[in-house]
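Message: I would love a firmer grasp of how sequence relates to backbone shape in proteins. Thank you; the sequence and its tokens follow:
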Amino acid sequence: MFFQPKANLPDSAKSRIEFCLQQIAECVGFERLLLPVVGRKTIFDLYEGERNPQHVIAFIGKHLGHDVNGIQVRNALPQAPSAGGGCCGGGSCDGPSGLAGRYEPADRSIMLDQTIDSDPAMGLATLINAVVCDLLSQNNFAGVHLPEQVDLAVVGTGLGMIRNSISLVAKHPVHWDSTQWDVYPRPFLDGQSLAYANAIAAWGRDDAAPEWSNDLPSDLKRPMKRSLKFLLKTNDSFFRPRAKQVLLTQSQSEWWKLAADSSASSQVIAIRHLNSNGKLDDQQASLLIDKLGSANVAITLNAIAAMERMASQQPAIASESLVRGLRSLTDHRDDEVCAKSMCVLARLGGLDDAAVETAATMLEAHPKHLTFAGLYALCMQDSVPEEVVPALDRCFVRVLRACDYELIDLIATAYRRWLYDPQSHFEKLFQNSPEHLPIALETLQKVPQQPVLLSRGA
């Protein structure tokens, strides 16, 4: 039996990284993302020679083919606030920690929070990050303020070997909806993302056995080699620097064509760019239905997001066949697919009786995003079956006992919509736990009254 190689990241995460690298390459030039990888020893030896940060900056500038004249290094108090919208080199970035300084685009200065000699690896990584920030800033790269994207530019341009040895993010806070790349940008690359970025760096340079990989920390080396093996075997990447192909400004017809590509990453990114000026033609509708039913979760999720995006602009896109496809996903094996399809169905007004019943069962679910999706969908209904209220009662009692108040406003909204006298209902519900009643009543008072009759026999 032969096993298909897999990347060390799920398709959603690897697609995000490949998309960001494509953005960087189209901004600063593909040639810069094909430059040789600079070894750790080269930069350390350069600094040790004269201990002059300007020499390091000059070396990085020469490597990048970037004019670094005018970049100044300054000392700052630790964690000093940025006065000029500082880029993501330093402690202002979200995450457990940051680099030892930051880049200030207003005057092209590198503000160091500590001397390089006190921690050479951290100090030199900060200089490299700042010069790459300057490159991105001078080329008007839109994501220059985002730590993860600058990290990707550092690794992509062959300057990541020192950064590879520094752990800046133990674990990313992950939003349940993995399609929301732009709404929830990430801090610096975590270990797994850094490993994949290095694999792309090797594969993009057509280097099947990079010598520099021997200097990677052990926790990066194994997943990096796993992903490099995957890339060499499948060529499954949206970002292909040797092709030097501009993709992000292509036409809608080309995006629709790319959505049928064999590469999962290319499909995900293409689906995120799909649009339509009116009702989908038969071929487009068939493709979107096919992507909704994909065995690849990332493709399915982004197809749901694409349908929501297009239907919000052109309601005619939400045909009955597409709505049926969404309904079939509300009991999908993947919790995120269930939650997202339920939310989108509710927004499109596509809930039928079976979907309402499924939404009610979500109120009992352990994953919070499933509970949210069920609540969200039910709150948008003009009528609900009577049996939904006991399920909501159990949900409300559970979250209050757990002191988990994240969903209580939405729960109170549901009661306000469904009951004529929710206060009396609360008094009865919490008669054996009066300590929760004040919280319930206070929340209820914040919600405007919008009663909706319970449907009977639904």
